[in-house]
Design brief:
With 305 residues, the protein is α/β, with parallel strands linked by helices. Helix content is 38%, strand content 23%.
Length: 305
């Protein structure tokens, strides 16, 4: 028995006439009759009885019609779901996130993707840079989001955003009264740096900018994440350079000031990372969402080529 037998039987049962069923199926009557006979022989029961007007279902035939329709519905549903999965419209997207990456652009991207692909389940995993790379290689996540990733032969990095740098400080800081802060002036102020962990990272970015400006920074604290860094800055432990998306952290006592006298490259990237050999439809759909979102984010985190 195969799906063709079921399709033929359903047509005959619904039309109650071999000739009309054959026309509906675009085949001649003799092959259709043989297929029904084969089905009856395999089941060992009569499904149809002849009448002057055509055929009628036996009791067994009526029961089999219900089951055949159920099977057809399941097959059609499985076919549709498989096709949707092949188009990236069904399945699961596992996403590695860390630090300030979740404060602005990432929620917007994930929301846009969920609106376009509501049947794809999005699962977030908090992981640092090293954990994301390992999870990608082990196929435990589909994509990760991070900053300043060194080139890796098996990992593709797609730039999502470049953010300008701002200065977080306590509202009682001597710098708080200024409209903006000249970057070289930070030589006289303790810095709170983040994140500790795998290098290169944002700490290296800040240190490089300081050295290019001709001074060795006074490091007050090195902490694990932006939230801790901003909280310490609000508490007066120093000032803290942050990506602009960090301004979403409206902690009590903290204010953010723009910086001047910075080199052109004084931005920090936000990138999507994924396995170079991953050809899954869901990944392709998600990367498509990134492309579509390029012009929709605020200017402070504008998507760039």
């Amino acid at each position: 028995m195969d799906l063709r037998h079921l399709r033929y039987f359903i047509a005959v049962a619904e039309e109650q006439n071999i000739g009309r069923a054959a026309t509906r199926l675009h085949i001649s009557q003799p092959p259709l009759t043989r297929q029904i006979q084969q089905l009856e022989e395999e089941l060992g029961v009569r499904l149809l009885k002849r009448t002057p007007r055509g055929v009628e279902l036996t009791q067994a035939g009526a029961l089999f019609l219900d089951e055949a329709r159920n099977i057809r519905a399941v097959v059609e549903q499985a076919t549709e779901r498989t096709q949707r999965a092949g188009q990236g419209k069904l399945g699961r997207l596992d996403v590695g996130i860390f630090g300030t990456a979740i404060l602005d652009a990432i929620p917007k991207l994930l929301l846009a993707f969920r609106r376009s692909y509501p049947e794809v389940k999005i699962v977030l995993h908090t992981m640092n840079k090293g954990e994301q790379i390992e999870a990608l290689r082990q196929r435990r996540i589909t994509v990760g989001f991070n900053r300043m990733l060194a080139p890796l032969p098996d990992i593709t990095t797609r730039l999502v955003a470049n953010e300008r740098l701002l200065l977080a400080m306590s509202h009682t800081s001597p710098l708080a009264a200024q409209e903006s802060v000249a970057f070289p002036a930070l030589r006289d102020h303790p810095l709170v740096l983040f994140p500790t962990g795998a290098r290169p990272n944002f700490i290296d970015k800040v240190m490089t900018l300081c050295h290019e400006a001709g001074f060795e920074p006074i490091v007050s604290q090195e902490v694990s994440d932006a939230i801790t860094g901003v909280a310490l800055a609000a508490g007066g432990f120093g000032v803290c350079l942050v990506p602009e998306s960090t301004t979403s952290l409206a902690l009590p006592g903290v204010i953010y000031k723009p910086l001047t006298d910075l080199p052109h490259h004084a931005q920090v990237d936000l990138s999507c990372i994924y396995r170079s050999d991953d050809q899954s439809p869901i990944l392709e759909a998600f990367l498509g969402t990134i492309e579509q979102m390029r012009s929709t984010l605020p200017s402070g985190a504008a998507l760039t080529e």
